[in-house]
Specification:
Length: 220
């Protein structure tokens, strides 16, 4: 199993997002997965220009010369892309959104004359983008903050012709990197749960019902 995490926090390696990603990937690695993390904060990835050249002029190739080419190479052969982001205005970070927009290059145009065909439909039998999952944390204490991201990620997966394999959302993200003495045991337990989630994904490419139920609970 090859798992690649895309960390979309502008805080990169020092982010609360990374604490979650790291715990998850450590568990996945213990279960045999080949793991790596891309820090978008360390990459130059520019906005999609919307020119459609990657569909019509130079199929499969983007006109923008930046770090996206290297990241796409890293994704080759991956079984799971872990999209990870802090919650910004009830959505993913702009950094991660720019990256997702650039995945447009993995799609292809609808057949000529097929007005009902969807954007990004691939003629290839195998989807270009492997399964995806979402990891996010927010500042506020209520899980309803993630409603938009959860709905939207399902739509992103559908547009990419893949499926959303799992979602992990943590409230009060600052406590992950800076726990009070009172909450430290709960944070330690939560990170173990994330490690277990990584293990389950590496072994079964899905979370058990028990783990899903535990992840729905607030860790503090
Ligand atoms: C621009 C911006 C917008 C934010 N919007 C929200 C929000 O809508 N809801 C929320 O609960 N927290 C919000 N936050 C708080 C972050 O989600 C929180 O600080 C998170 O722990 C940052 O994660 P990171 O360390 O991985 O970057 C926002 C923070 C920033 C900087």
């Amino acid at each position: 199993m090859k798992f690649v995490a895309i960390n979309g926090s502008p805080k990169g390696r020092a982010s609360n997002t990374q604490i979650m990603v790291n715990a998850f990937l450590t568990g996945a690695s213990e279960a045999g997965a080949d793991i790596s993390t891309v820090f978008l904060s360390e990459k130059e990835i520019n906005s999609c220009k919307g020119c459609f050249s990657c569909w019509y002029k130079s199929p499969g190739k983007c006109v923008i010369r930046d770090d996206m080419t290297g990241v796409l190479s890293l994704l080759a052969g991956a079984n799971l892309i872990i999209l990870a982001s802090p919650l910004y205005f009830n959505n993913i970070s702009g950094t991660l959104k720019v990256f997702i927009d650039r995945l447009f290059v993995t799609g292809s145009p609808p057949p000529p004359g097929d007005a009902k065909a969807e954007y990004g439909q691939k003629a290839a039998a195998e989807p270009v983008v492997p399964k995806i999952m979402m990891i996010s944390n927010c500042g506020f204490p209520d899980r309803s903050q993630f409603q938009v991201v959860s709905l939207w990620m399902e739509k992103v997966a559908a547009l990419l012709k893949t499926s959303l394999a799992a979602e992990i959302y943590a409230v009060r993200g600052k406590l992950l990197s800076d726990p009070t003495d009172e909450v430290r045991p709960a944070v330690v337990n939560y990170l173990k749960l994330l490690g277990n989630s990584g293990k389950e994904m590496a072994m079964n490419m899905k979370l058990s019902e028990t783990t899903e139920e535990l992840l729905q609970r607030d860790y503090v």
